[in-house]
Amino acid sequence: MIENALYVGSVGKAFRVLDCFKGAAGDLSLTEIMERSGLDKSAAQRYAYTLSAEGYLQQNSQTRRYRLGPGVLDLTFHFLRTHALAEALNPLLLQLSKDTEQKISLSLRDGDWLVHVLRHQTSTEHYHASLVGRRVPLQCTAGGRAVMARLDEAQVEQLLAPGRLVASTPRTLTTAKAVQAELKKVRERGYAMVVDEFIMGEVALAAAVVDADGVPLGALHLSGSSSQWSGADYAKKFSPLLLNAIAQYERRNA
To answer: What is the pLDDT of residues 90-145, one digit of tens each?
Structure first.
């Protein structure tokens, strides 16, 4: 519980119910909502009913199970519709997609995570990989390392503290020394590269998107198949296009 007089506990509990659906394989029963949220049956039932009435949950009339409702998607639309950075960068993403025929995405920093907000997929990409809203860690993704390279040393050390480096694949770097070495390369060349560290079979490049003070807001990503490209060849072919897109954005917003 957040200890602040401005915090409304009942609203927080409603969000705990919505958060139950993060990572869920599908619909949830009331019992599963109780278990995931930590609420008792009466509270879980009341919050689920209220959220359903407001359109943020839907209940199957036959199974009585719940799923997220279209109200959640409506908020996503308005988030993107009013987000100046996403609007400004979308033409550059479209051009990168056309020029490279690779998967292109924009992510925004949310604390210790990146959240994908715009994605232009390839024809062969898996459905789930093409969806916006996916949250990924900073430490083992190209976009995350591009962002980390722009943070001060204290922030980087916090992100690399013991227990913070978790392997996503057998090739994920899991020591602070190894990640620091990669961050040094990012600062030298202007982009990050990750091969098979977050998703097996994927090679990814990313460059940070920063504000006027150099604070990283997110990252522009480009990724393809590591079975078709070595990291070196992928970077040689596509990093100039990625860096050019970032340079165009910075010139337009200088």
So the answer is: 999 999 999 999 999 999 999 999 999 999 877 555 666 667 888 999 999 999 99
Q: What is the pTM of this model?
A: 0.89
Rounded CA gap, 106 and 206, in Å?
9
pLDDT digits (tens, 9 = 90+) for 1-59: 688 999 999 999 999 999 999 989 999 999 999 999 999 999 999 999 999 999 999 99
Give yes or no for a contact between 210 and 236, defined as CB atoms under 8 angstroms apart: no
Q: Which of 194, 204, 109 is nearest to 151 (CA)?
A: 109
Query: Looking at the chain, which residues constitute the CATH 3.30.450.40 domain(s)?
Result: 82-250
Q: Does domain 82-250 have CATH number 3.40.50.2300?
A: no
What span, in angstroms and rounded, lies between the C-alpha atoms of 19 and 52? 14
Q: For 164, left (φ over 0), alpha (ψ -120 to 50), or beta?
A: alpha
Q: Where in the chain is the domain with CATH 1.10.10.10?
A: 7-71
What is the assigned CATH class of domain 7-71? mainly alpha
